[in-house]
Every structure is written in C-alpha cells, then in structure tokens.
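User: Continuing from earlier, I have the next pair ready.

Assistant: Great, send them over.

User: Here they are, in order.

Assistant: Folding the first of the pair now:
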Amino acid sequence: MQVLFTLLAFLLTTGILVLFHELGHFWMARLFHVRILRFSIGFGPFLWSRRLGSDQTEYGIAAIPLGGYVKMLGETPEDLLEPADRFRSFTGLHPAQKFLVAAAGPLANLVLAVVAYAVTAMAGIPGIAPVVGQVEPRGVAAGAGLQPGDRILAVDGSTVSDWQDLRMRLLAAAVGGTVVILEVRTPGGTRQRLQMGFGHLPPDSISSGFISRVVGLGPYLPPVIGSVVPHSPAARLGLRPGDRILAVNGQLVPSWQFFARAVEANPMKEIRVRWQDMRGQVQHGSVQPGLYLFHGQPIGRMGVTLAPLPASLIVLHRRPPIQALGYGFGETVRISRLTLEMLWQMVQGVASTSNISGPISIAQMAGESLELGVGPYFSFLALISVSLAILNLLPVPILDGGHLVFHGIEWITGRPVSPAVVQKAQMIGIVLLVVLLLFAFYNDLSRLLKP
C-alpha cells in the first residue's frame, strides 16, 4: 500500500507540474491566435483523449508521465500549411512572440511556486524552534562561537522562524561563499552577534547532511525517552517512556544527540546512566548497549526512541492571504537564486553532484510530504516547480532554454536558424538529457541501497 501511495503521489505531483508548464505555452500561443493541434500530459500513446473547441484540439493523457507537450500548427518549418492557415501558425509569429511562447512554460512553473508557497504560508507548517542543541567541535558553527542552548534569532537581519528556515539561509550562504551575521540569544538571555564565514569550504562539501557535518549544527532535542523496546538494554536498565536522561558516565547530557552519541560510541561496553523518572525521582544504573553494524562500523544501541517535542519547541506561523502572496514571491525568488548558485557550484566542484535527484527520489519525497499534510506537500511542490522552471531555462537544445536561444538568434538576425542546425543541436540536447537522467537514476539508487 505504501508503494501504491508513493506512486499516486508521484503521478499527482508530475501531473500538476506538467499541467501548469504546458498551460503556460498553451495560453501564450492562444493569446497570439496560434491554432493548437494537441495538448498532452505525458509522452507516448494516449491513455485518454478528447477533441474539444472550434479548432478540435486534441487533449490527452499519455502513458509516460515524465513531461508533456503542446503541438501547434506550423511549429516546424517542414509543416505544410495552406495559405489560409499561415496567419494562425507558429512559424508565422514574430520572433519576439515565439520567444514569449517558449518562456511561458517555465514562467507558469514559477507562478505555481508562488501560489504553492502562499498556500504553505496560509496553512502553516509546524517546525522546530531554532535552538541549538548540538555543536560539533570542528564545525563552522563552533568556530563562530555558537553554544548548545543558543537561540538563533536572525541571519543578516532577517528573522529566523524555525530550524528549516535557518538551514536554508545557511545553505544559501554556503553556496554563495559569503559571511553571515547571526543574532543569538544565549540561555542566560544575553544577545550576541556572531560571524559565520563560508569562504573556504572543501570541494564537494555541500551535499546531503551539510548542516550537521560541515556547519556542525543540530537542533535542540530534549533527552526524553519516547518508547522502549521490550527486552532491550534500555528495558533491562529500567528506563520507561517519559524518563529524562541526566548523565552518561558522569557527563551531563544536554541533548538527545549527546545521549545517542554516547551510546553509539560504546557497543557492548558498560556505561553508567543517570536519569529522572516521571515522578521526579533520580535513578541510576549500568548497562551494556547492544552492538549493531552501520556502514560496516560497530555502534551501540539502547532500544529507545525520542519523545515528541514539547509545545515550547514547536513553532507554527500562519500568514493572511496578502502577506502569504508576498512570502510566496520572496521564497520563489530566493529558491530560484539558490538553485542557480547551486548549479554553478556543482560546475566548480564545490557542491556535490549527489544533490541531483531523479524520479525515484522525487516520488519518495512526494509521498512523504503528502502524508505530512497540505503545508509540507505544497512546500515540496513549490520547490520542485522552481527546479523544473530553472532546468527548462537552461540553454540546452530541446529544452525551452534552447528554443529561447534559437528564437533570440532569429529576433536579432531577422532569419530563423537553419532546420539542419536545429535538428543536430536537438540530437545533442537529447543525449545530454539522457546522460543527466541516467546520472539522476544512479543517485536515486545509491540513496535507496545505502544502509
């Protein structure tokens, strides 16, 4: 059932993205009175189709849900046209009009992102408060002077709403290689301004887990037990749901991450644990964590899970419609800039190419976000819509960006690019897209098969 749900979420997501993209081309072409012959969601043979309107446009859903197309009258110079049809053909348009028709698809995806982010802002997404719980000694955060318990209020003067917001702002700074100023409130209530620089990152460092590995930051998660596996080391020790871990081997435990690492570092070795039970009484005892292999390395396990976060660490921001639209526009601009910068960093070798995701990863994220609710799903939809728009604007033949180049040349020179040149360029574009798709599949399978 989970696989079926993921597949349906993927089909829903790709259907929405492709529909908006192709509607952009469709509406702009109709604005210039071009006759539309076919409007397809997907490629290959039609599973369903209908002819509608005075032009008898064929609308259909095809078998391969990885794109779509709008076929216009006279779209290629080889199309044979009756003299009476030329004024309604694509080839009869001014190069500037052709340029707008090609650009309308990616623009529609950016509009979709604005709307989706606005819906997210109105619905609100529960997030973790930007309180620091983990600081790696050798990370960028430690060098900036951050300490566990610090609450990050703003980055470069912009208020930080939750942990995800903080992650995105730090990631954007890392991609840009800039220095940011953090406004921080310490556990004692003192306000500080700290400087965090990203000018000298090692190659391929911007990848999955960048914030925890390189920046060395983790959110504050209280060391409170949520559940205990029967017959596990934790059960033998006497831990119960609701117990709060106070110390391990004499060291105070400030967060769940600290407790987890202490356990992981001591497989089959006796550790001393002190905790406070639900009645407020302090207990202590010794136990040996079980041994498990993770990426071939032995680590300790206690058989416990983290308790749900208290309300004080959960933030939920909802915006009224007008403010939500402003937020949607701002987020779309920010994510678009971040995507372009990330692509450039990949070319330079700073950002890892493992960030490229394919259909399998997108399907998984679509299913997971849809399970979480309206806000998370629309946030995911907006992110993918921006990515689709940026991808299509790249100057690669067969993509919209390639068509923009051809129409731009025609606009400047006054004559269309030779059909033979267009055909050869599109063959190169197809090869590039196939290579990119295979690479994305490789990344997907690597994530899927990783322990």
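And the other member of the pair:
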Amino acid sequence: MGFSRRLARGALVAATALTVSAAAPAPDKEKVFQFALQNGMQVVVVPDHRAPVITQMLWYRVGAVDDPPGISGLAHFFEHMMFRGTAANPGDAFATTVARNGGEDNAFTTHDYTAFYEQIAKDRMRVVMGLEADRIANLDLSDNNVRTEREVVLEERRMRIDNDPQSLLREQADAALYLSHPYGRPVIGWPEEVRHIGKKDAQDFYAHHYAPNNCILVIAGDVTPDEVRTAAEAEYGKLPARELVPRWEFAQPPRLGETRLSISRGDVKVPLFFRIYRVKSYTEAKPGEAESLETLAQALGGDSTSTLYRELVVEKKLASDAGASYDGYNRDSGEFAVYAVPRPGVKLEQVEKAVDDAIREYVSAPPNATDFARAKTQLIAGATYRRDSQYERAAAYGQALAIGLTTDDVDQWPDRIKAVQPSGVRDAAARELNKREAVTSYLMPAASAEPRK
C-alpha cells in the first residue's frame, strides 16, 4: 500500500513493450529540445529512436487549485469533458480514432496540472495532434454532455473514494493539514459541490484555461525536432491564444499544533496508522533539501529493506506493513507520509510509538552507512529504469515544466541524489518532520474503535 499523492488520477495505460536495437542509442544520450509556437504553446521534443513510436503529452497548467470556490472537482470534471467530443469528432470518436490507428490514450488531473496523452506509431503523429487541436478549440459543451459527465464523475467518486476507507481517510487528513490552501480540497471534488457544476461553469473554465498559451506539448519518440516543429505548427499553430485567468499564489498560515484524526467505520477490515507532514517541495526547497527528503523517505520506509519495515514488521513484529513516502513535485508544499498496519492484537498507539522511535533515530544522528548507501542506489536505479520508458521520460519533463521546474532539473536529478550527504538527511528529518506541521490519523473498525487516552 502507498499513500503519496499519485501522479495519475485515472488509470494509466502501460507503455507498449519495445524491442531495443543494439545499435540504437540509449535514451538518456539524446538531447532534449525546446521551442515555442507563436500562439504561446511550449514544445518539448525528447528523441528516442529505438522503435517507430511516439508518445504525445499535453500538460495544461490548470488543476484542482484552480477550481473556483464552491466548485471543487471542476478541473477533474473537465478532464472528463475533453472526451465528450466535437462536431468533427462527436461522442467517443476521439478514442475510437486513436484505437483504430493502433494507439492508446488517457488523461489525469492533479492539484497542479491536467495532462492528456497518446502513444501511437510515429507516422500517426499528425493524426493525434489533429485530434487534440480539435478539442482545444471545438469542444461540445452541451447541457446533455455536462449532465452526463457530472454523473460519471460522481459514480467514479463513489467507487474510488466513498467505498474505500483508506481513500476517505487520506481525503480527510489532507483537508485537516491545509488550513487555507486548496491542496486541502480533493482533486475529484466534494460530492455536494460536483453536483452543482453546470454548463456555464464548464464554458468559463474551458475558455480561460484550455488554450495553447496555457499548454506544454511533449513529444517523445522516433522523431526529430524539425519534424515535430513542422507538424505542431500545422496542427496547433493555427489555434489562437486566449486570455487566461491568472493563477492564485497562496500564502499558507503557520500551523500552531498537531492535528489528530480518528475514524471508525464498519467497512474497515484492519486498523491503520497514518501521518502526513507538510514539508518543502522541490519548487520551495533550497538545493539539496528536497533530494535529502527523498533519500530520507527511501531509507526510512521506501521498501522491505527500509528502517520502518525492518524494525516494525521483521524485528518487533508489531506491524504487517509499514512505510514512508515523499511527494515533492508540487507548485507549493510537499508532503511526507508514514504509515503502519498493526498486527492483530497490537494497538495503534504501539505502532505509532514505534514509528516515532524510528523517526527519532534519523533526527538524532545521520543514517547508518548501509541504509544510506542502499537508499541512494535504489533511487538512482529507479530513475535509470524510468528513463528506459518513453512514456516515463515524457511525463518527467512535462510534470517538471508544469510546476515551474526545468528540463535540467530532470536531467540532473540522479547527480543531485548522489550528492546528498548523511548530515543532509539528518537535517531534513529534524527540520521537516515536525508534528506541528502534521496530521496523525487512526483508521479503525467500528466494532473495536480505540478511544484516545
């Protein structure tokens, strides 16, 4: 189980397996190219000549933080609306056309951005560009489409959030963590507010956010920059720029104390201890700080070799699972999460104390050499494996640019992890894992709810 905010809110389609020629250059040897169209669309080209396929991603600088007051979930709702069709491609013609040409497509929304992608043969690049350009300009926002998609979103919420106690816990914890920042609103929206989304709301959102000058186009695959420029100018260059709604900048008030949250429900099968800290993100941190948090999360609870799993699950046998994660790729604050699932008969207070004891080890002294070296090796290896995926490379650049980072931040990340020092991990733990900046949660079966002592 994992509790970091996921990149994709919808199901991500797995990349098609590629046969790599021994003569083809490794993808990390290729230079990334950037340019802009006259209408303001930013374009990134990531050459990868191992197979005749491309990944197209469009990253819009709009997400749940841009939902108007009282209409949470509008950005996510509009991700759905983008598949409702146009006059030229009505209904599900978009997805049908992509599939008929041998491709795959999907989309996802986060607090900070909304992204759409297609994976398809390189000689179909103009096809998917034309489809995307069409729905940027000509989306069908009829009352019927808005009403239908609103019900689809509410059903998605019932299935993915309302019927999942852990998702409900996470939603409530986020709401408690952020005193005024819209990161405290769920991306999918509160159901009472989603029900109020109407045609005018959709039209206003579309007119002021879905524009070429609010979009980053990433093309990764068997292409050259000149090929992409020619195709992008032909398909996207004809779209006019639009007046955008300026994005709000939020000053977050200080938290004066830890928040504690206890939820007991009849559909909870096993108890859960879960805590999230509000910490610095990659966009807020000084050089090395976010990378130190990343290393801390991996060493403390990244997998079955980590401190939390070793101490709580293997040695003390207090938990059946335990871990930690760092979510730092945000425009504003990041989150650091820890969790533990107690074994039968073990109280939540016991696993919470054990987690706090493990954290205290990292606060009081640098990590031991073995754990520290293993954590950095795992992070760098993971980045290396992701670079072998065309989709993952395109997503890494798109995500970075969408939150205000650069392509250099993506390319240099492994070297920055290598540069992390043990003292930096200790300092990160001491500085960022402050309970005043945290929400500690207990999730319990209703029949055995444990009162706080």
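Worth noting for the second one:
The chain has a mean pLDDT of 92. Residues 73 and 200 are 15 Å apart (CA to CA).
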